[in-house]
């Protein structure tokens, strides 16, 4: 190795160490936020916001220091980085991109946003429990102003303010392209939902709306997460008001679900969803933690992993052929006489509903379309927070066919806006599309996945995803990853085909 190459290798290692150290601070802030969402006394909110804001500011300062810029400049022509898909090449490509993006944001804006996020989530939780939108509105206004300023600072000539925020979660995504994708998908879904509604074979869901013991739900949730591959030596499952997944270190992944006493699917599918996120986090390469090869490709790809396990696996007849005996053991009084077919039908019932996280697979993306359109209007200034509750209710009535009776079941049902996650919602639908396509590709390579699932053999699918998605990290864009893993660019066709197949079984739909 030449002297110049040796120096470049040393510079690269120094650069990586900076980001590894930044990850230590960032995950410390994540730990404080996890604690805030699980057990922190409400009185600690103000100081917790200061703690998190301070740490986020330190991380921002480390990642945007002049020294980082100088090192990136020094390494831009390094031969070892010529391949943008190699670990070194991808690291320099994405660190440079992130560096130039983050340098547009002053540290005080980053800290104010972090503080508002912590305070906002606490206020949102209290407002939802009290069914009081007015309690939440001031902090929502504060967050929208912060995110609007962030977007204005980040946007390029080819971006809207909203697209600049969307870019944080789905790099390169365009609102117009998403709007068209969603419109096309909506047309297919509306037709499918109409066929289901017209079917004479409707589903009685009373079986899963009885009273279910919370302790038994907790045990069953732990069991199914472990069964699909979530490693409880490197993670844990807890309870919160809005399920999420967070990673506090390369071997410390926290998933959270919630339990409804009168609606069993909430805990089951919430757990599978978050465990899917957790499998992605646990499947990444630990030696690159804090750097692009040890990070996720995009939030859409991340959501593909959660939605795949939740729906493409968890709602299949094969899954319940395996787990029905165990489920009945956990709930002998309420489900002792239930059959596999009854449970499968109940868990795939299609009915327009109010709550996104409890929505069936056919109507779920309609919930996302509502949020996508509303948050664009909020950021663009076309919709005020004064008018938001009515706009939300009107949109639900028009798009989904139900009108929320309260703010708690309407505009207050999601935590995302309080946390500053504006631009996140579209990734759920992108994740649904990718999940179906990845599942088909895995099936083509592995063979009869239904038989494997029926036997409780989840490792082959888990390992396939680990190879083609998890361990790829951020060495590919989302589009590149999907194309390489499946042989095709992202398409809605696999999702529609999957839905028609599943609901054809449940509702006896005509081909």
UniProtKB/TrEMBL annotation:
**Tree of life domain:** Bacteria
Q: Does the keyword Manganese apply?
A: no
Q: What does the UniProt record say this protein does? A: Broad specificity carboxypetidase that releases amino acids sequentially from the C-terminus, including neutral, aromatic, polar and basic residues.
Q: What is this protein called?
A: Metal-dependent carboxypeptidase
Cite the Pfam families for this sequence.
Answer: Peptidase_M32 (PF02074)
Using the UniProt record, name the top-level EC class of this enzyme in a single word: hydrolase
From the record, what ranges are coiled-coil?
none
The protein's UniProt keywords, in alphabetical order, are:
Carboxypeptidase, Hydrolase, Metal-binding, Metalloprotease, Protease
Which PROSITE patterns does the UniProt entry name for this protein? PEPTIDASE_M32
The family annotation for this protein states: Belongs to the peptidase M32 family.
Does the keyword field hold Metal-binding? yes
Q: Which reaction does it catalyse?
A: Release of a C-terminal amino acid with broad specificity, except for -Pro
* Molecular-function GO terms, alphabetical: carboxypeptidase activity
Q: What is its EC number?
A: 3.4.17.19
